[in-house]
Amino acid sequence: MARKNDKIIITCAVTGGVHTPTMSDALPITPDEIATQSIDAAEAGAAILHLHARDPETGKPTPDPAVFMQFLPRIKQATDAVVNITTGGGLGMTVQERLAAPLKAEPELCSLNMGSMNFALHPLAGKYKEWKHSWEKPYLEGTDDFIFRNTFRDIAYILQHLGEGCGTRFEHECYDIGHLYNLAHFVDKGLVKPPFLVQSIFGILGGIGADVENVAFMKQTADRLFGDDYVWSVLAAGRFQMPFITQAALLGGHVRVGLEDSLYIGKGKLAGSNAEQVAKIRTILEELGHGIATPAEAREMLALKGGDRVAF
Amino acid sequence: MARKNDKIIITCAVTGGVHTPTMSDALPITPDEIATQSIDAAEAGAAILHLHARDPETGKPTPDPAVFMQFLPRIKQATDAVVNITTGGGLGMTVQERLAAPLKAEPELCSLNMGSMNFALHPLAGKYKEWKHSWEKPYLEGTDDFIFRNTFRDIAYILQHLGEGCGTRFEHECYDIGHLYNLAHFVDKGLVKPPFLVQSIFGILGGIGADVENVAFMKQTADRLFGDDYVWSVLAAGRFQMPFITQAALLGGHVRVGLEDSLYIGKGKLAGSNAEQVAKIRTILEELGHGIATPAEAREMLALKGGDRVAF
Amino acid sequence: MARKNDKIIITCAVTGGVHTPTMSDALPITPDEIATQSIDAAEAGAAILHLHARDPETGKPTPDPAVFMQFLPRIKQATDAVVNITTGGGLGMTVQERLAAPLKAEPELCSLNMGSMNFALHPLAGKYKEWKHSWEKPYLEGTDDFIFRNTFRDIAYILQHLGEGCGTRFEHECYDIGHLYNLAHFVDKGLVKPPFLVQSIFGILGGIGADVENVAFMKQTADRLFGDDYVWSVLAAGRFQMPFITQAALLGGHVRVGLEDSLYIGKGKLAGSNAEQVAKIRTILEELGHGIATPAEAREMLALKGGDRVAF
Amino acid sequence: MARKNDKIIITCAVTGGVHTPTMSDALPITPDEIATQSIDAAEAGAAILHLHARDPETGKPTPDPAVFMQFLPRIKQATDAVVNITTGGGLGMTVQERLAAPLKAEPELCSLNMGSMNFALHPLAGKYKEWKHSWEKPYLEGTDDFIFRNTFRDIAYILQHLGEGCGTRFEHECYDIGHLYNLAHFVDKGLVKPPFLVQSIFGILGGIGADVENVAFMKQTADRLFGDDYVWSVLAAGRFQMPFITQAALLGGHVRVGLEDSLYIGKGKLAGSNAEQVAKIRTILEELGHGIATPAEAREMLALKGGDRVAF
Ligand SMILES: [Zn+2]
Ligand SMILES: [Zn+2]
Ligand SMILES: [Zn+2]
Ligand SMILES: [Zn+2]
């Protein structure tokens, strides 16, 4: 069984690389916006902040470490939250590009995608008539031919260079049942050590879909493969966000919110900020009798190296 | 619920592109061997023959239509079995290469892989000391960096050119739960029409693993997504072959055997031929009270165009 | 699949026959208390009120129709909520006793327990040192030898005399998976007609236990047996109440609260009233984006005869 | 997870108390018939023989120890199989009657039913026009009002007097998910100690039904409650016998056959003997690669006291 805790870790994924500026004015773009929304999310109750960077002019996802370095120190200074940097980056980046910022920043935690897959956003392209930037529509449309690359060799490389090399631990992103088996392969080889964080993701076209039944099965499979060696969290795309993470909490898991995962706060209603989503899930969790983990408690559950041992 | 039939369709995957000549002397390589084993498998009870081609000299998987044409007509002449040609080919082939033979042969049925994924055979490379051919070891070892490419655009292309273009129907190969959702995407768009054949695959590193619990969940998910619009079959890799397909039959599904999927007939015992595996599952199914579908019955269940309407 | 509705029906089970006066001062005992708490629960959002009667002096469950008639008309007058009367009564009553009040009142809805089972409360007896009434401790202690009797003949009798005879429909209480099969038996015989209400119950010693995994399996089984002929609701005993009914809502079900099922409002904190529990689940459901069904909407979903066609 | 063994224990339930003489000429009635069929079943591969007695004249189930004593010593003398005596008896016997023979014989193993339930055979009564004996039809018809009584107090009594008193261990018969929780209650109280045998039963009207999905869920629940403290076996009623026990074997369980559970050997074909069913499942299990446990191996897996330490 996944390690159970009385307290639930809220991760907030502040901007990501999936949504584009046209989709919501609340999506943070500039380093300043990313820092401000991150800090607000932490104050609302997020123990972990999962971060991507965007080109401040166009809002396009960027792997540039210099941009990351414009918001990472500010966030570190203003909050105690765990900083978690993407290794997935944005569509079309090479693995080397995706690793540039994490290897430079040496954060406590990074996302690590546990398999290659189609990652298709092209149905979104038809939902908007006018676009703020010219890159947005082709970025989305092209995903009908896009493969999110994470081969076994890539994953081993990241585990070795970022994990063993920098003392970074991972949010192992599992978009399907097979990704759990991929993770088990690395656990068997000794490259991943407990307690490790499994982030299960529902509702991306190309991965496992957003039917509630899938959440329990994902956990059952992880229980079978990992016993109590893992800590489990869930995120879901778009309108599935709140019900799916509530489902996870009922099953003993942790939760992830944020505008990377969903731009909404209710049916047809855009969220005004990341903090708004943190506050909403916090209310639900507290009504259900759960406590909310502090950054210190999250660090202990995940055996992180400490917020003062990073390179930013 | 998947369409249920009193009779079970046995598919035999005669040689595939995964195993290499070193692994078993029984693996058919030449057109003559492929034809002979196919015909024997049909006589033993296989209603469908799933076929790849290999270079007659080296045994390496080949997409060359000329090689296919050396065994397809012989099989057609000698048996009434449904001929099913791969569109997956072998590791490293482009999609265009993979389609060359099917577009030429216009068979009743082709495999169609329902998503991109890591497809890793590298742990096999360490199991053999001496190799019959020089290509075998690097072919296997390199798969730690291999992605089996099947983007949404690729799949749509195959559905249009081979499906609509040639009247070919598909064995939709689903290596994970997400692949069912990918299939549902094409069903929703009207590119796949009932009754369609879902082949669930267990035990390939990169896809869903070989735990028996996964079989029932795969079916539950397909039932939820497809109701009675689909016909369900199962295959499993290696030593999981017989128990997993027996599991499928207990749940109302059809079965696939063959040396593409497993080289064994029992614990540590290599199968002497494809027909031997067909005979074994036939015994189990008959003891459990099932009948075995003839090619004509399989054609009707799958709404195939007929064995006389192919281009070989 | 269970019939889905945008709106969720909240049932409130106001006093029941399981808890005893010692356990909570908030447990309504007298007709006046039962009426008052029922009306408050309805105003807080309960569309259905599930009712037992108690001896006004001792608080012991009573089947006496005269006692029921002291609160039923008041509730009818003050609210539009659906009145649902128990046919389970209290421990040790005969089936004829259990039916006296319902046959007299001819309500729109009655509970109907779908099988015989051990119904054990004896572990509760050890939790209290002093008792308000002398009947309480032996009432609980004796349940280690108690069978809650609901044979096939009993159920058929109730379906005929109360169902066909009075136009009453049923909350089919299912304490285990087998009870769904018992219900399917009566559906097959035409004695139960859609849309019927299945109330799944978790956490009574003798029935299915309170593990969250059981909720989804109960629904899967009901989906398999009943398709969309049924409306699904969940209740859970004690501290499992809120998480289990939230789980039900995530799976498309309706919910039941009330002091019959749990005396608590939070960890170790007794609820002050039934209405308090109604308000709490209402908050959670609304945060998750659900609407709350009115009595009129509940009547339509359940095809009830109407609040004006009862005999009180 | 249930304790896994390479070898599978076949239990044979030779005559039971459910079927009546009219239903099959092969049903053993007299002590001589019961002894002969038991010995043959053991020779065919059954490691455990589960036994009821019947009135030699009428074939009606009897609790009379004197009748048991006419076949128990013969079986003990002729085979090494584990003798397992019912504590369920036949419909309508009191718990004291049901215990008479086991307390006298002090066998290594006895069945123990883990809860009260409706146990309905009345639909069978309509399938036969002429009856061999006058008791048969009313015996079956009356079950629409029959409760199979096994209260918590009854179970505790049996565990103490037969279990602790005689060194007998138990085949814990679980007809529904709740029965596993009842068993967990006794495990928690220390009255049942590992390794204990859980026999899951499917297809009795009143208990969990015969849908294959239920088998895996029964095991998942037992895994959750008991970890590796238990040994798991399955039986299923009537035509579900062979597929359900094959299902159990695929999930790592043991199997029970015998004319108590099913009178058939194939679709519409009555079995000629118990041994015929043992042989059939043995073939299937061996084709699937399983070994068959000897009585000595079964004794070790179940920690039995030994065949020489009984009172017959
Ligand atoms: Zn991200
Ligand atoms: Zn193939
Ligand atoms: Zn009640
Ligand atoms: Zn028995």
From TrEMBL, chains A, B, C, D:
List GO molecular-function terms, semicolon-separated: 3-keto-5-aminohexanoate cleavage activity; metal ion binding
| Pfam families from the UniProt entry | BKACE
Q: Which cofactor does it need?
A: Zn(2+)
Q: So which domain of life are we looking at?
A: Bacteria
The protein, known as: 3-keto-5-aminohexanoate cleavage protein
Species the sequence originates in: Aquibium carbonis
Record flagged with keyword rRNA processing: no
Record's keyword terms, sorted: Metal-binding, Transferase, Zinc
